[in-house]
């Protein structure tokens, strides 16, 4: 089956940048969208960003728009989330997920596979 593994999380200071990665394996050749979600302590998992197979279509949560950039390298089976101007409220476990189709979506129930998550902590 599909396996997603996140990496690159860590502890950074407010205003710094960090890039997290998601390596995928076990896929067929069908195109599909990928997304990033995050979950802070005591809160529900929330949408962060999504990207289509070709990378031509992207979507971002209002809270990260202009600061975060989602990209993918299909030859390396990897999706990235570059996070700039990090704030304390960005602290969360970041999860990557694969959608059932190539349509970008912010709905959790439209993502079929999930990684284990990587912790991002932003200190003031």
Describe this structure in words.
Strands 2, 4, 5, 6, 9, 10 and 11 form a 7-stranded mixed beta sheet that branches. The protein is mostly beta strands and 124 residues long. It has strands spanning 3-7, 10-13, 18-25, 34-39, 46-51, 58-60, 68-73, 78-83, 92-99, 111-114, 118-123.
Count all strands and give the number.
11
Strand portion, in percent?
A: over 45%
User: Could you state the order of secondary-structure elements as H and E?
Assistant: EEEEEEEEEEE
Total helical segments: 0
Radius of gyration: 13 Å
- How many angstroms separate the termini? 40 Å
Oligomer: single chain
Mean pLDDT, all residues: 95
| Biggest pleated sheet | 7 strands, mixed
Structural class: mainly beta
Question: Segments where pLDDT lies below 50 for 5+ residues?
Answer: none
Q: Give the overall silhouette.
A: globular
Helix share of residues?
A: under 10%
What is this structure's SSE topology?
Blueprint: E1 3-7, E2 10-13, E3 18-25, E4 34-39, E5 46-51, E6 58-60, E7 68-73, E8 78-83, E9 92-99, E10 111-114, E11 118-123
Parallel strand pairs: 2-11
Antiparallel strand pairs: 1-3, 3-8, 4-5, 4-9, 5-6, 7-8, 9-10, 9-11
Features:
124 residues; globular; mainly beta; 7-stranded mixed sheet; 4-stranded antiparallel sheet
Short structural description:
The chain is mostly beta strands and 124 residues long.
């Amino acid at each position: 089956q599909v396996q997603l593994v996140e990496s690159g999380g860590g502890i950074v200071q407010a205003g710094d940048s960090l890039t997290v990665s998601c390596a995928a394996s076990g896929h067929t050749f069908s195109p599909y969208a990928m997304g990033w979600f995050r979950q802070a302590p005591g809160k529900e998992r929330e949408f962060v960003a999504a990207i289509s197979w070709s990378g031509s279509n992207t979507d971002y949560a209002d809270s990260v728009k202009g600061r975060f950039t989602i990209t993918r390298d299909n030859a390396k089976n990897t999706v990235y989330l570059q996070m700039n101007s990090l704030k304390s409220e960005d602290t969360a476990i970041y999860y990557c997920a694969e959608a059932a189709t190539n349509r970008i979506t912010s709905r959790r129930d439209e993502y079929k596979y999930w990684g284990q998550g990587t912790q991002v902590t932003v200190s003031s």
